[in-house]
């Protein structure tokens, strides 16, 4: 097929993806803003927020991964005009996300003692513990929000989540500033101010999304009249069978990057702070690929509902191509500005910490070079995962991601980071290798499945023609 066939799909892909991208960037800004504002308090505070957010981020990834099961079921139902399936997917998904939010809150809240077993510096643990207590609670509204988001995304109404996130950030930024630094006569809360700001902004996020979805004339058909009597074990099992493997996929990747935070903690607070800077920037660019991943999940799910597998593969490959082009641009930016970008996160006028700050900037600059290299593989692996979720294929991708990240990636990061002179750079080389392995084998899986579906559909058509 010519390149033009894929480029023709760019417009439809972009219209679906850009609200998701903006929404995810806004969602990611919550942690990014915390890092920037707290980073100006000192390297120890930045390291503590990094450690605290790593716990919450792992839990959040599990919840988000689980909730993604809602989208392909809704998208397939929408494509097949099966209104009962769409309604059931939303109502059952909402119940499951409420339970998941409560569960994850409990796991994080009571899991803080793990920090003492990880060899982290006592100063950092002491600062991180009360921060985690508050931010863990924000997981409840954040995961419930995901149920609404995944439902709306599956119906191709991706703008509501974008508006909700922008609204919550409009609240988060000023609250953070007031509470962290203590303005307008309020006490200076430091890190805890950032935690309170996160809780308030995520409650606002959920409230906005609920109101927006409930008032949409098209979506009202599926959202109104909720009743526990409609909850059936068959749909619970269907969402769970898709959601748990998807949650594990997210967990394997996010836990790998979080392990980089923990491993860098063994190297000292400057390495941990530098790691958080590079991770914050890489996470920001990753949101673009995540937005395209949702577009892949929705459009592939729609085509699966229509059983048009040739069009399905064209749509998916067009999104893969968009991801490659966008991530190439980010790779060039990271390479060209690797010595400039880290300054955003630190206060270079902090006289008492001049040496620490200089070391943080130098380490972060090296990490951004490695991050530039894995932009392509990171982008490809997540959009291919989105396409596979649209096909409702989750078990084999879970095995692939586990092997890539934890059989190959983590041991390599551990060895290069802690057993060689590469330090934090070695940790990130391990991340780069694992993402590349995942991207290659996930694409091979997608190619195998689509070839099989096209062949089976062709054989079915030939049988019908011969019968007639």
Keywords:
single chain; 468 residues; 82% helix
Q: What is the arithmetic mean of pLDDT?
A: 86
Order of H and E elements: HHHHHHHHHHHHHHHHH
- What does the largest sheet look like? none
Oligomer: single chain
Helix content: over 70%
The fraction of residues assigned to DSSP E strands is under 5%
Query: How many E-type strands?
Result: 0
Number of helices: 17
Query: Could you tell me the radius of gyration in angstroms?
Result: 22 Å
- Give the overall silhouette: globular
Low-confidence stretches: none
Between the first and last Cα atoms, what is the distance in angstroms? 31 Å
Output the structural class: mainly alpha
Describe this structure in words.
- Helix 4 (70-79) packs parallel to helix 12, helix 11 runs parallel beside helix 16 and helix 12 runs parallel beside helix 14.
- This protein starts with a helix and ends with a helix.
- It contains 17 helices and no strands.
- Helices cover 82% and strands 0% of the residues.
- The mean pLDDT is 86.
- The chain is mostly helical.
- It is globular and about 80 Å long.
